[in-house]
């Protein structure tokens, strides 16, 4: 299995002057109560360990976390089973779980981005993009979208600033719902500090999508997964509109994705 080493592995670098971070970090404190709540969540540990004992944690019937990933021997790696419901949380096993790290089939994002990714100049998008040097199977984990974790107030300020100054926008807002009710919003900005995930462009017909992945913290990681088989040299893209792709279209900047179903506009990043 490609990701079977139980160590975090990420030796990518930025082509420009941005601080490389391996996973999301808190924004600088602004002293607000909103920041304090975010910091409290960031510093909390999820006490939801599974009680499996040396089993594979594959089976949703027996493992309280399992069931989202599957190991297909022909692909030689864990892949995400269900592609339809991206808002569904994915919970990985962690150090508190009863299972063995070596045999657990519910640990993927925690080992870091896949290898053979490459930052390049995308002529289509006239800026940086991310592509793969080798084939990627459907459902495979690409990388986290890691950056500074923002409060809603700080995110609104940064969005306004990006808009006013005509800067590229890296702020990503992930809403999670349960029974159609919004449960949690996670906002990540890799503009100043981030990982390789910041280079994926938007497409109206993307080959990747974002899922919320929890490991040992109530704040999810934004995991980028392959939405289909992806060929070597293909640029990796996801839909910036997130869970509701019909919203916020026809409002943003002109879209350069060139997909047959392109709406002509990039979705605006909005915070409800
Ligand atoms: C998260 S960054 C993606 C990486 C970026 N291209 C770079 O050079 O660092 C998002 C920015 O890339 C550009 N971009 C991404 N997708 C685009 C699209 N479909 N059409 C036009 N510009 C896009 C926009 O400037 C957007 O604000
Ligand atoms: Zn388990
Ligand atoms: Zn496990
Ligand atoms: Zn488009």
Structure write-up:
- Helices cover 9% and strands 25% of the residues.
- With 272 residues, the chain is mainly beta.
- It has a single domain, classed as Beta-clip-like (Beta Complex), CATH 2.170.270.10.
- It has a four-stranded mixed beta sheet, covered by helices on one side. It has a four-stranded mixed beta sheet with strand order 5-14-15-8, with no helix packed on it.
- The relative contact order is 0.19.
- It binds S-adenosylmethionine and zinc ion (3 copies).
- It is found in: Chromosome.
What is the topology?
Elements: E1 19-20, E2 25-26, H1 33-42, E3 69-72, E4 77-80, E5 90-91, E6 117-122, E7 127-132, E8 141-144, E9 148-149, H2 152-165, E10 172-178, E11 181-189, E12 193-194, E13 201-202, E14 208-214, E15 221-226, E16 235-238
Parallel strand pairs: 1-12, 2-9, 5-14, 13-16
Antiparallel strand pairs: 3-4, 6-7, 7-16, 8-15, 9-11, 10-11, 14-15
The protein binds S-adenosylmethionine and zinc ion (3 copies).
InterPro entries: H3K9_Histone-Lys_N-MTase (IPR050973), Post-SET_dom (IPR003616), Pre-SET_dom (IPR007728), SET_dom (IPR001214), SET_dom_sf (IPR046341)
Protein name: Histone-lysine N-methyltransferase set-23
Domain SET: 115-241
């Amino acid at each position: 299995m490609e990701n079977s080493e139980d160590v975090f592995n990420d030796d990518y670098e930025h082509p420009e002057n941005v601080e490389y971070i391996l996973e999301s970090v808190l924004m600088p404190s602004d002293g607000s109560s909103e920041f304090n709540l975010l910091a409290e969540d960031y510093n909390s540990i999820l006490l939801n360990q599974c009680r499996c004992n040396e089993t594979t944690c594959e089976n949703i019937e027996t493992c309280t976390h399992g069931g989202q990933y599957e190991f297909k021997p022909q692909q030689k790696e864990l892949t995400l089973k269900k592609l339809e419901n991206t808002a569904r949380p994915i919970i990985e096993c962690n150090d508190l779980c009863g299972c063995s790290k070596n045999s657990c089939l519910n640990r993927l994002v925690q080992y870091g981005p896949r290898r053979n990714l490459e930052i390049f100049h995308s002529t289509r998008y006239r800026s940086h993009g991310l592509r793969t040097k080798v084939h990627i199977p459907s459902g495979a984990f690409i990388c986290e979208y890691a950056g500074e974790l923002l409060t809603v107030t700080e995110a609104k300020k940064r969005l306004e600033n990006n808009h006013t100054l005509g800067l590229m926008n890296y702020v990503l807002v992930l809403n999670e719902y349960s029974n159609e009710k919004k449960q949690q919003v996670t906002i990540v900005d890799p503009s100043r500090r981030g990982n390789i995930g910041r280079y994926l462009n938007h497409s109206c017909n993307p080959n990747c999508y974002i899922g919320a992945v929890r490991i040992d913290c109530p704040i999810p990681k934004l995991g980028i997964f392959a939405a289909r088989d992806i060929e070597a040299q293909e640029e990796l893209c996801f839909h910036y509109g997130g869970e509701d792709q019909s919203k916020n279209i026809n409002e943003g900047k002109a879209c350069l994705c060139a997909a047959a179903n392109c709406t002509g506009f990039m979705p605006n990043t909005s915070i409800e």
